[in-house]
Amino acid sequence: MSLMKSRDVLADSGTASHGEAAHWSYEGEAGPQNWGELSADFKVCELGFEQTPIDLKNAISAQLAGVEPDFRPMPLKILNNGHTIQVNCDPGSRSRIDGRSFELLQFHFHHPSEHLLAGRAFDLELHFVHRAESGQLAVLGVFIQQGAENAALQPIWAGMPAVAGPVQDVGTQITPASLLPTERGFFRYQGSLTTPPCSEGVLWTMFKQPIEASEDQIRKFAALFPSNARPVQGVNRRFLLQSL
């Protein structure tokens, strides 16, 4: 599929060769090990050399341009697309990443975390998906570990649909900036979408500091998605960088 035909469909859907959606899953015959065989459009899932997620270890410390999110409060527009809970973002929120401006399109969650931190998995992982005017995609990733209840998650958790369906306008405001860690140290590498079609050329920034969610909050998401995390992929010849 064209990556950016719509703000609403990015990152968690793919299009089969003849225009019908190819069914994919996180388990069974349509699971990650077979994504590349499900559609001609998904071949890079199997053959790509810059796939995401990865294990964040052995990073090279470097002087990197910082990350400057500028997220505005917005109405909560939430979607269960059958693969995750996704919040679609109104225009106006942006991030400056590696010296370039990217518009925030949507954010969504994975259980457990897709990336590992030196072999360790976290309870959840949050992805803020952005696009530059050039069409390049960039993702800010946040680990979520068990701890205190997260007030910023509450309206999302209260409104998340239990079954897949269309976008729902919940009628409340959310503040995505409250879901970012206070410390902004990060890892940086070139990767891909973590769902079919697994398109490469995505600029990844994973924050080192996790945020917290309560045991009940983690359990509630896990009840909907027991496992919606792609296994880690090979780093191959890529450079994994980390901020000083």
TrEMBL record:
<keyword id="KW-0862">Zinc</keyword>
<dbReference type="Pfam" id="PF00194">
    <property type="entry name" value="Carb_anhydrase"/>
</dbReference>
<feature type="domain" description="Alpha-carbonic anhydrase">
    <location>
        <begin position="22"/>
        <end position="244"/>
    </location>
</feature>
<protein>
    <recommendedName>
        <fullName>Carbonic anhydrase</fullName>
        <ecNumber>4.2.1.1</ecNumber>
    </recommendedName>
</protein>
<comment type="similarity">
    <text>Belongs to the alpha-carbonic anhydrase family.</text>
</comment>
<dbReference type="InterPro" id="IPR018338">
    <property type="entry name" value="Carbonic_anhydrase_a-class_CS"/>
</dbReference>
<dbReference type="InterPro" id="IPR001148">
    <property type="entry name" value="CA_dom"/>
</dbReference>
<keyword id="KW-0456">Lyase</keyword>
<dbReference type="InterPro" id="IPR023561">
    <property type="entry name" value="Carbonic_anhydrase_a-class"/>
</dbReference>
<dbReference type="GO" id="GO:0008270">
    <property type="term" value="F:zinc ion binding"/>
</dbReference>
<dbReference type="GO" id="GO:0004089">
    <property type="term" value="F:carbonate dehydratase activity"/>
</dbReference>
<comment type="function">
    <text>Reversible hydration of carbon dioxide.</text>
</comment>
<dbReference type="InterPro" id="IPR036398">
    <property type="entry name" value="CA_dom_sf"/>
</dbReference>
<dbReference type="InterPro" id="IPR041891">
    <property type="entry name" value="Alpha_CA_prokaryot-like"/>
</dbReference>
<keyword id="KW-0479">Metal-binding</keyword>
